[in-house]
Amino acid sequence: MQVIILPTPNDVAQYAANSVVDVVTENTNSILGLATGSTPIALYDELVSRCRAGLLSFKNTKTFNLDEYIGISECHEQSYRAFMNRHLFNLVDINSANTYVPLADSLDPEVLARNAKAYESEIERSGGIDLQILGIGVNGHIGFNEPTSSFASRTRIKTLSKSTVEANKRFFTKGEFQPHLAITMGIGTILESRAILLMATGKGKAQAVKDMIEGPLTSMCPASVLQQHKKSIVILDEEAASLLSLKEYYLWCEEKRQQLHEGNLL
Ligand code: PGA
């Protein structure tokens, strides 16, 4: 696991944007895994600016989002399809037919289960995800894989934890129906991505970040599974990194990595 600690959330977004640009320009047919939530918004803003400046094109890129709420329509402004349209898809040159978000607008469990299975097949048919962007929940979830989710899980219907429902309350108006079910990529699905980039910012994430990087491998902190991925990069701001015991070591590693990159081995 590569741990990168940067001064501010904006630095985190810039670093993540550079990584996305590298993947998309190296292979114009690349497959991206995308996340919603407040953390990646700054990344999407940056990608939109670079695309508008002609520095980047998503013309042949395919994207798969991690998850979607069950119980609200795609047109609801809090659906993750609407989120992605608003923050990225409608603002760049991507072909909307190449943007996938789990289809969760049915209330029939059989249809939802079928949609989840079809999502897995579509990822597989596309050749798998080159770079998966992740955030982390305060309870250590990735996607909507809540604590105790199996590390072998695939795209499926998942019940949200009370803490996740609470954390997302701010996006719904008082008295409005708030989803407590979702279709989410599984942890097994996420782990098949060729590279994973997890972004975390702010003090509120510091404990989850510590559990993910320095805690035991446990389904109580689903993100800890990234310790087992061959190419996982965690990008943190100072606040999210504030509880890490080996913080100085991670900073030192990055310094050395930079020197190696410049051919300065000693
Ligand atoms: P956030 O959510 O970026 O809004 O904090 C992250 C997550 O729950 O995965």
Automatic annotation (TrEMBL):
This is Glucosamine-6-phosphate deaminase. Belongs to the glucosamine/galactosamine-6-phosphate isomerase family. NagB subfamily. Catalyzes the reversible isomerization-deamination of glucosamine 6-phosphate (GlcN6P) to form fructose 6-phosphate (Fru6P) and ammonium ion. Its EC number is 3.5.99.6. The keyword Hydrolase applies. InterPro entries: Glc/Gal-6P_isomerase, Glucosamine6P_isomerase, Glucosamine6P_isomerase_CS, NagB/RpiA_transferase-like. Pathway: Amino-sugar metabolism; N-acetylneuraminate degradation; D-fructose 6-phosphate from N-acetylneuraminate: step 5/5. Residues 11-232 form the Glucosamine/galactosamine-6-phosphate isomerase domain. The active site is at D67 (proton acceptor), N139 (for ring-opening step), H141 (proton acceptor), E146 (for ring-opening step). It is an enzyme of class 3 (hydrolase). The keyword Coiled coil does not apply. It catalyses: alpha-D-glucosamine 6-phosphate + H2O = beta-D-fructose 6-phosphate + NH4(+). Pfam families: Glucosamine_iso (PF01182). GO terms for molecular function: glucosamine-6-phosphate deaminase activity. Allosterically activated by N-acetylglucosamine 6-phosphate (GlcNAc6P). Homohexamer. The record marks S149, R156, K158, T159 as: Part of the allosteric site. Keywords: Allosteric enzyme, Carbohydrate metabolism, Hydrolase. HAMAP family: GlcN6P_deamin (MF_01241). It comes from Marinomonas primoryensis. The lineage of its organism: Bacteria, Pseudomonadati, Pseudomonadota, Gammaproteobacteria, Oceanospirillales.
